[in-house]
């Protein structure tokens, strides 16, 4: 599976990359906030690195691991970028090291793009204070650009000069995730189009929308249909059998049930003249059906058993098989894995 499909082929994910790139090109810092984990994080970094470098080849790209900062952010940044010119700084009440860094336009810092991820409340507060003060002293276009990736902690950062706050969830919808699954499933070998749709639908349902788990599930290909629970337990060990059955049933109602209904329609078209002779038809529950197109597969089997139309042994076994499968779904019971695979192959 090609992870970079997400950041390059999914329209809204690519739009997020484009918006971040445009902001950086304009020398605006970006705070990217997310609620759920951002998928394919390393690929996002690589993609942004490429797109930003293509717009400004002269800018530097530096990654900072916030968890490794043992001092305050101001001290870390000063030691990292101004160690050689530390002697030029003279502390006064109105001249903090942050202000010195912001106003020192001869340093490499003003052409640097700094990528960082902060998770703990302490880290986030340190970076909020630093970015607020740093950007307040910077002159337009003469500043470092910070790309801060942070998990939403429910606190507002307010307005920070020269900084855009973007929310991952404002870009990505359930539809984007579905498209990703369909694109990846389309590459699977030895699968019919119906099987690929079924695999994609199962994968997104079982993964709960987690695209990295979804990718791993899709990697099993056809095996996901024939061994759904086994595949799921391999990728998501904590998922119980009841949850897997629910997703299977929902997927089968969406994609397998129409195949069964298509077969019912074909039977009616093929044997309609003979079937009409059994109308009105009384079901085992004493319901009277006068429209032949309202007959279900169980009704059609009974009419066949009563001698109104004849089928060879192979076709009759298929009718029984499809009737039993439809009954399972009607009682909220997922069709057995191998039977589901057989039906998907039939279509």
Keywords:
347 residues; alpha/beta; Rossmann fold; two-stranded antiparallel ribbon; 7 strands; rod-shaped
How is this structure best described in words?
- There is one protein chain.
- The chain contains 17 helices and 7 strands.
- The longest helix has 20 residues, at 257-276.
- The radius of gyration is 30 Å and the shape is rod-shaped.
- The strands form 2 sheets. The protein has a 5-stranded parallel sheet with strand order 2-3-4-1-5, sandwiched between helices. Strands 6-7 form a two-stranded antiparallel sheet.
- Helices cover 55% and strands 10% of the residues.
- Helix 2 crosses helix 3 (41-55) and helix 9 packs antiparallel against helix 10 (211-218).
- With 347 residues, the protein is an alpha/beta fold.
- The protein folds into 3 domains: 5-171, 3-Layer(aba) Sandwich (Rossmann fold), CATH 3.40.50.12060; 174-255, no CATH class; 257-346, no CATH class.
- The mean pLDDT is 92.
- It starts with a helix and ends with a helix.
- Strand 6 and strand 7 form a beta hairpin.
Question: Spans of 5+ residues with little confidence (pLDDT < 50)?
Answer: none
Number of DSSP helical runs:
17
Name the average pLDDT: 92
Question: Which oligomeric state applies?
Answer: single chain
- According to CATH, the fold-level topology of the largest domain is Rossmann fold
The rough form would be described as rod-shaped
Class of secondary structure makeup = alpha/beta
Structurally, the number of domains stands at: 3
* Cα distance spanning the termini: 27 Å
What is the element string, with H for helices and E for strands? Answer: HHEHEHHEHEEHHHHHHHHEEHHH
CATH architecture of the largest domain: 3-Layer(aba) Sandwich
């Amino acid at each position: 599976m090609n992870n970079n499909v997400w950041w390059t082929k999914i329209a809204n994910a690519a739009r997020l990359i484009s918006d971040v790139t445009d902001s950086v090109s304009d020398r605006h810092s970006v705070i990217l906030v997310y609620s759920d984990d951002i998928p394919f994080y390393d690929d996002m970094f690589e993609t942004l690195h490429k797109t930003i470098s293509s717009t400004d080849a002269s800018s530097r790209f530096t990654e900072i691991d916030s968890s490794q900062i043992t001092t305050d952010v101001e001290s870390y940044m000063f030691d990292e970028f101004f160690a050689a010119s530390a002697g030029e700084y003279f502390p006064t009440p109105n001249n903090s090291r942050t202000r010195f860094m912001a106003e020192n336009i001869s340093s490499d810092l003003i052409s640097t793009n700094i990528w960082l991820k902060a998770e703990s409340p302490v880290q986030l507060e340190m970076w909020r204070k630093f970015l607020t003060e740093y950007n307040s002293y910077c002159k337009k276009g003469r500043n470092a650009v910070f790309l801060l990736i942070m998990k939403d902690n429910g606190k507002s950062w307010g307005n920070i000069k020269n900084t855009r706050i973007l929310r991952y969830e404002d870009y990505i919808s359930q539809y984007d995730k579905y498209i990703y699954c369909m694109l990846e499933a389309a590459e699977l070998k030895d699968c019919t189009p119906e099987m690929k749709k079924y695999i994609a639908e199962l994968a997104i349902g079982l993964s709960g929308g987690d695209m990295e788990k979804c990718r791993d599930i899709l990697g099993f290909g056809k095996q996901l249909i024939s061994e759904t629970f086994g595949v799921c337990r391999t990728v998501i060990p904590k998922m119980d059998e009841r949850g897997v059955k629910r997703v299977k049933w929902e997927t089968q109602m969406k994609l397998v049930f129409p195949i069964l209904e298509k077969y019912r329609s074909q039977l009616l078209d093929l044997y309609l003249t003979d079937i009409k002779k059994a109308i009105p038809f009384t079901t085992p529950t004493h319901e009277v059906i006068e429209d032949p197109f309202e007959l279900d597969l169980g009704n059609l089997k009974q009419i066949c058993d009563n001698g109104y139309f004849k089928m060879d042994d192979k076709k009759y076994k298929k009718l029984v098989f499809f009737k039993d499968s439809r009954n399972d779904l009607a009682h909220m019971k997922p069709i057995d894995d191998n039977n589901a695979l057989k039906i998907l192959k039939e279509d």
